[in-house]
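Q: I'm a student working through a structural biology exercise. My instructor gave each of us a protein and asked us to get a predicted structure, then write a short paragraph describing it. Mine is Capsule biosynthesis protein. I'm not confident about reading structure output yet, so if you can add a plain explanation after the tokens, that would really help. Here is the sequence I was given:
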Amino acid sequence: MSASSPDHAAFQADDSWARKARELDLYRWKLLRQRHGRLGSLLRLSRDVMVDTVVGLRAKACLRDSVDATPCEVLLLHSAPKSMALQRKNILIDALRKRGCRLMEAALRSPSHACRERMLLAPPQAVPLRYLVYAAHAQWLVTTYQPKVLINERNGSLHAPFLRLALAARGARLLHLAHATTLESSRRLGMNDYDYYGVFGRSSLVALQERTLRFGESTVVLLGSYLADETYDLPVADPAIKTLLILGVGPDREKESGYQETYRLLREWAGRNPHYRVLFKRHPRSKAQFWSDAATRFSNIELLDINQSLAQALARASVVVNIMSNAGIEAGLAGRPVIYVNAGSDEDIFAHALFFGPQVRDEGAFSHQLQALERNYPESVAKARGFADYHLVYGSQGLAKTVELIEGLLQGVNPERKFETFRLPAAG
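A: Happy to help. First, here is the predicted structure for Capsule biosynthesis protein. I'll explain a few features afterward.
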């Protein structure tokens, strides 16, 4: 769509920057009302508006008059500099560049950092001061990189609606690429203001559709996981190797009592069953101190090197222990049976029980489920693959299909021609 087309003109008329800000005010109010009473919500919203307005005054003083443009075809916008440093999207970056795509990376900056570094450019329309830093940073990003497609990864970002407006003015598109299933209850998943929303599969789509509060509208594309490629097409393991792979949770969850109890349960079980090899795959942001200490204490526990890929770890294992990780889906893709262990009160958002049996909360139940799994290992492998199919479309072709989608968007091809798509309207 060209910037001067009638459709574009209608888009700008219907979705002005100021109107978007007013819609965000209402959305943020509804988010607060989900957790607080009317008075509590009013006090919190007033505080947030006051803070955002002060930041807006600073942003106004830090606006640039112009930028030095470095145009690209695709801009991969990481959620933060620390996320960019983890290099988790290198598999996608390499695949796109091998196809000749001019791709650049950038990281979304916090309001304070954007002001300090003057990564701000006045938007084409006036916005309230409370949203100026978000709108101006979005305008700076789009004007600096001038992408045809911007890939966003940060859930719940207040920048997203303004990125979409800035991109639309250039006839460009905003693709939100899910880096995990959308099954969590996180309030951040209520942000839905994207041109296209690439999700893992039907379970993710249903979870988004069932949310009672969504901001904006998007076209959901069933895409699979860009992290899934042929390296997960592994031969069936031999259960006689008796090697378990534990998938660790993120550092925030590691602080919670339920997950700490789960870690202790698994460590003590490993200590009482030295004939099993227990591998621990840490979350990319975790320091894994608990399992580093456990590996020192028990010779059958191994803390895997942070650079060892998930596929490499799965190749060594016969059974996977999942606590609350999307990596359990890749385990199913690789044909590794899963045991769901969680001593906390969290809901089984991945529906493990439909495939692998009930949630394990103690050592006895863990041993019982492991023995049952090993007695009929081929059937357990089949259930693991069914688990992956439940959450993922395209299996190990997720990376290839993601590249296909992005290339199609660059060429102006409507995703509906090659993918299953669903309109996801605003809600609440």
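A: Here are two points you could use in your paragraph. Residues 241 and 318 are 7 Å apart (CA to CA). The chain is about 45% helix and 10% strand. It's a good idea to check both against the output above yourself.
Q: Great, thank you!
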